[in-house]
Design a protein that fits this description.
This protein is α/β, with parallel strands linked by helices. The chain has a single domain, classed as Rossmann fold (3-Layer(aba) Sandwich), CATH 3.40.50. Helices cover 43% and strands 19% of the residues. The chain contains five helices and five strands. It has helices at 18-31, 44-48, 56-80, 95-106, 127-133; strands at residues 6-10, 34-41, 88-92, 110-114, 139-143. A five-stranded parallel β-sheet has the order 3-2-1-4-5, sandwiched between helices. α4 (95-106) packs parallel to α5. Bound molecules: adenosine monophosphate. The site of adenosine monophosphate (AMP) has 17 residues, from β2, β4 and α5.
Length: 147
């Protein structure tokens, strides 16, 4: 019996996302579910705002570069997974909040993500995974990565 109709894979593009992608893809296949990808660009402006205005132009252009790079990466990944363009999503903001919001907006019933990104400790949940689990509007599969 199919349990999920819409599955979202959250990709951070920092490290190796392949294990997460494979699990999400397999679950979508076995459930006959629609697959979505999401990457969230975090605002650099917030991080540098307290440093004064001299930083702002550089931060704005760096953010534009990052956005362009993200669009390229998500389009390539979407093509490889044979997804529709409208299922390849980019949002700006805090990753956990945006993941929650996209789940509500798109009616996602399962999020597939890593237990931690590249910088996380192997045995601990990373901060994004932890925050997504708390208050998630749908099921969450935290894939143990990088052993
Ligand atoms: P973290 O909790 O930051 O160590 O990351 C754990 C997992 O959260 C990653 O493996 C991704 O699945 C997801 N994640 C982290 N940052 C982002 C991001 N900026 N956009 C989308 N997903 C993310």
């Amino acid at each position: 019996m199919a349990m999920y109709k819409k599955i979202l894979i959250a990709v951070d593009f920092h490290g190796d996302n392949e294990e997460i992608i494979d699990k999400g893809q397999e679950l979508a296949r076995s459930n006959g579910a629609d697959l979505y990808l999401l990457h969230v660009n975090e605002s650099l402006m917030i991080a540098y705002a307290s440093d004064g205005m001299s930083w702002s132009d550089q931060v704005v252009s760096l953010e534009a570069e990052i956005r362009k790079e993200t669009e390229k990466k998500i389009a390539e990944l979407g093509k490889r997974l044979e997804l529709k363009n409208e299922n390849c999503l980019i949002r700006e903001g805090k990753p956990s909040s945006e993941i929650h919001q996209v789940c509500k907006d798109e009616g996602i019933d399962l999020v597939v993500m890593g237990t931690h990104g590249q910088s996380g400790f192997q045995l601990l949940l990373g901060s994004t995974a932890n925050s997504v689990l708390h208050g998630s509007p749908c099921d969450v599969l935290a894939v143990r990565v990088g052993d």
